[in-house]
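User: Sorry, what's this?
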Amino acid sequence: MLRQYINGQPVTTAAHQLLLSLNNGHFTAIQARNARIKGWDLHQERLRTASRFLFGCAPDIAPVTAHLRLLLDEYPDCALRVNIFATPADLKQISADDLQILITQSTPVEMSHQPIRVSTTPYERFLPHIKHAGIAVALLHHKRNARLRGFDDVLYTDVAGNISEGSIWNIGFHDGDTFVFPYTPALEGITLQLLRRTLQQAGIPVQTTRVHLQDLPRFRAAFILNSITVGQPIAQIDQVNFSNDNSVLMQLRDAYQQIPWERP
């Protein structure tokens, strides 16, 4: 069941006009279990940084945190999405008090380990470092085209063929020794940031570098990372197949288990 709250109050028909402005903003997506989440410090930083970039000011995170705690007390296992946006009339000059905060709580999404096949397409998102509302239109178009070609999802590259990100996920590789994450401009997901930090702290080799389509045959494993799934194997990218050594994916998932679940 989906529940929405705007500025701390349940969404009613009176708020529908305000919600038409939802595309003028950004968001972060969270999975909660047992009333706890991972990486709340990074989610807060994302909300502040993106707001400063788009609006020139940052929201007060304290009421967001307080409302999330109330929701988690009632729905300890759930999916959460925090949108921050401004109405068109506010866009010329706004302050933190003008920002609208929408929190959506819904059924938790379980992690999948089912291998998928993805097709690449050249596409560079506008403001790739921001998780903005404009992501959806391109996602629908490119993912649909990938499925029409017989694949499960889409993987983006820049015009030179450097891999950036998937439709709603980051991609990672393993070459037999090192975890490799693409450097091409893309949204760095919270899960990616947490895992890279955890792997490095454990002394496991990690590299962030450009990965070109021509580099794909040298990798033994390819996998998906986002708030929903960790280490979901990619069996095929275009015509390149991956053996996906299970020990590599288990190492990745074990590292994820080391990341603490925290109370917001």
The chain has two domains: 3-106, 116-258. The chain has a mean pLDDT of 92. The first strand starts at residue 3 and ends at 6.
